[in-house]
Amino acid sequence: MGSNGIKQTSLSRTIKRSKRSDRVAFILLIGLAILFLAPIFIVFVNSFKGKFFISDTPFLLPNKETFVSFDNYLNGITKTGFSHAFGWSLFITVTSVITIVFFTSMTGWYITRVKNKFNNFLYFLFAFSMIVPFQMVMFTMTKMANVLKLDNPVGIIVIYLGFGSGLSVFMFSGFVKSIPIEIEEAAMMDGGNPIQTFFYVVLPILKPIAITVSILNTMWIWNDYLLPYLVIGTEYKTIPIAIQYLRGGYGSIDMGAMMAMLVLAIVPIIAFYLTCQKYIIEGVVAGAVKG
Fold first, then answer.
1. What is the model's pTM?
2. What backbone torsions phi and psi does residue 153 show, to the nearest 5 degrees?
3. Staple partner for 212: which of 82, 112, 278, 283, CB 3.0–4.6 Å?
4. How confident is the model at residue 291 (pLDDT cuts 50, 70, 90)?
5. Looking at the 3D structure of the chain, how many domains does it have?
6. What is the C-alpha separation between 93 and 99, in angstroms, rounded?
7. Is 2 helix (H, G, I), strand (E, B) or coil?
């Protein structure tokens, strides 16, 4: 067998190994997808069952005996005041995410481009804030929010800005390092000041990482229960707080209505994620080039 034959045999073996590993990876990914999607499917199926059948047959599809149509949804919306909770959740989430992206993008750009000891200290301070558990500061934070009159839907936006700044600044800083500084220098030479350079040159380039930061913070804030409960309480109920109202006395729970409300809470965030998911990997990979 000549050298060409040996090369072809080696190449064919490599291709077979590659195909085999691809099949194994595909099977593993399918298994993981089923594992992650199964709880959502179970919640969706049980949202159409009577509350007395959910505990007995949680993994079975609804039949003539257990199917209650949209009664659970109507009952849950009525009991929880879901429309008001949805409005507060939407307002707090959208406003908080816009605020986080607006301020942290400028901060990440500034501390990356302007090199000095103070900015280096700020960068490590933001990074350090990511590893501090919320439970360590929640009681102090609640007291300070009350003293500073931040215990309302507008004030909690400031608190979310504080808690969301660590990861957001870290991601924006990593992305800015991958942007050639010559682009900004050219804008400066054309007469642009730092503010014009940021908004007209840098910010459009930051679009992938800005969408990534928006998605991550939207999923966190929309699903957050503890911070709104501690800060604004039950006066301005968000969706997670409203769903807890389905828990009755002595541990009784209207499981049918709770399943239905969980579905309504999950659908908007899943739709948002599916719409923007391609930007997550694009933003993270681009930010990791020089970060």
1. 0.84
2. -60, -25
3. 283
4. very low
5. 2
6. 10
7. coil
